[in-house]
Design brief:
- About 40% of the residues lie in helices and about 20% in strands.
- By secondary structure, it is α/β, with parallel strands linked by helices.
- The protein has 2 domains: about 140 residues, D-Maltodextrin-Binding Protein, domain 2 (3-Layer(aba) Sandwich); about 110 residues, Periplasmic binding protein-like II (D-Maltodextrin-Binding Protein, domain 2, 3-Layer(aba) Sandwich).
- The strands form 2 sheets. The protein has a 6-stranded mixed beta sheet with strand order 2-1-3-10-4-11. A 5-stranded mixed beta sheet has the order 7-6-8-5-9, sandwiched between helices.
- Keywords: Metal-binding, Molybdenum, Signal.
- One of its GO terms (cellular component) is outer membrane-bounded periplasmic space.
- One of its GO terms (biological process) is molybdate ion transport.
Length: about 260
């Protein structure tokens, strides 16, 4: 190939590369920490299918809602409960017309994998405080973090919150609570079933009956003023059979 044609071909390749890069969009997703593994996998699939990129920030739904309220750049908000999505709607921080509930989960009691604690048939009569002994129970902050709110609700319905509350080690997110149990810093923890499933360092001791707390629901919505084609495309993609298959593989209930 003549030198001039070779140079022209190289310039063409460079131009094509940068043009494709310039056309690719980023979708900034603020999502509940319990979605970390599943959404990371879905983000890779989304990029492979569309060329656009999902950039995710994971934390407690309460923390993410506050960050968006304070101006943090996000296109999509995914909460682990209805409370914080309702907060976002009430404060006009998300577009309510784009809101939908996609996923569900279970609340479980966990212990370190090497714990002597046997699996139990957990009911409203199970004495959770006694199971913890002199130790504490890791979960999300029961005043703000969804997993902690669900646990508090379960204990209130069982008439046990007064006994359990002093033993609660409230963490910033469900994954932070999981880490406390993984490291053996506490004998018990309360997390979602999907979080327990991704860790070989913990075991499920019991599953809370769903009648003990409100349904665990994950609503999705576009952040107000962030109605881009890429963001809408992402919301469509998470409802696709391919994405639903990923959620199911990680143990989520899919609507």
């Amino acid at each position: 190939m003549p030198r001039t044609r070779l140079i022209a071909a190289l310039f063409g390749l460079v131009f094509t590369f940068f043009s494709a890069s310039a056309m690719a969009a980023e979708v900034r997703v603020f999502a509940a920490a319990s979605l970390t593994n599943a959404l990371n996998d879905i983000g890779e699939l989304y990029t492979a299918r569309t060329g656009d990129k999902m950039v995710a920030s994971y934390a407690a739904s309460s923390a993410l809602a506050r960050q968006i309220e304070q101006g943090a750049p996000a296109d999509v908000f995914v909460s682990a409960d209805l409370k914080w999505m309702n907060y976002m709607v009430e404060h006009k921080l998300v577009d309510p017309e784009t809101r939908f509930n996609l996923l569900g989960n279970l609340l479980v009691l966990i212990a370190p994998a090497n714990s002597a604690q046997d699996k139990i048939d957990l009911t409203a009569k199970t004495n959770i405080a006694a199971l913890a002994g002199e130790g504490r129970i890791a979960t999300g902050n029961p005043d703000s973090v969804p997993v902690g709110l669900y646990f508090k609700q379960a204990m209130e319905r069982a008439g046990q919150w007064a006994a359990v509350a002093p033993k609660v080690a409230g963490a910033d997110s469900v994954r932070a609570a999981l880490s406390l149990v993984e490291r053996g810093e506490v004998p018990l923890g309360v997390v979602y079933a999907t979080d327990a499933a991704v860790s070989a360092k913990v075991k499920v001791v019991g599953v809370f009956p769903e009648s003990m707390h409100d349904p665990i629901v994950y609503p999705f919505a576009l952040v107000a003023g962030k109605d881009s084609a890429a963001a809408r495309s992402f919301l469509d993609f998470v409802r696709s059979p391919e994405a639903k298959g990923v959620f199911t593989r990680y143990g989520f209930k899919v609507n």
